[in-house]
Write a structure and sequence with these properties.
137 residues; alpha/beta; Rossmann fold
């Protein structure tokens, strides 16, 4: 099974950025733990702060992978383009958020990804990614 985690803007700062919201662990450390725990899954990781690069990646792998775990971060709430890319591909996408977006600012309650996602997991910290991975298994 081939699964990719795609993270959007500022998620490269996990472990440093707002630890009260996002925790103290870097995504690299978490990803290595995830790969070790699910060693029978071909698990990849991609991160970009650039909207067009995220769309390019979705289009590149969106017809050949078994699943995409997508945390588009702030682009979730602003990018019609990423929402359209998720709609255009055939690989199922699980939308993931570390924090509970509904307990935050009102603009974070809207998602352009959700209508085209297989499912949504929010608010469980980094565990949200593992729950998404388990949904594909």
């Amino acid at each position: 099974m081939k699964i990719i985690i795609i993270n959007g803007p500022n998620l490269n700062l996990l472990g440093k950025r707002e630890p009260e919201v996002y925790g103290n662990k870097t995504f690299s450390d978490f990803f290595e733990e995830l790969k070790s725990k699910y060693n029978t899954v071909d698990l990849e990781y991609y991160q970009s702060n650039i909207e067009g690069e995220l769309i390019d990646k979705l289009q590149e792998i969106g017809f050949s992978y078994d699943g995409i775990i997508l945390n588009a971060a702030a682009y979730t709430h602003t990018s019609v383009g990423i929402g359209d890319a998720v709609k255009a591909i055939t690989t199922p996408v699980i939308e993931v958020h570390i924090s509970n977006t509904f307990s935050r600012e009102t603009f974070r309650h809207q998602s352009f990804i959700s209508p085209n996602a297989k499912g949504i997991i929010i608010g469980f910290g980094l565990k949200s990614y593992e729950l998404a991975l388990q949904s594909f298994l």
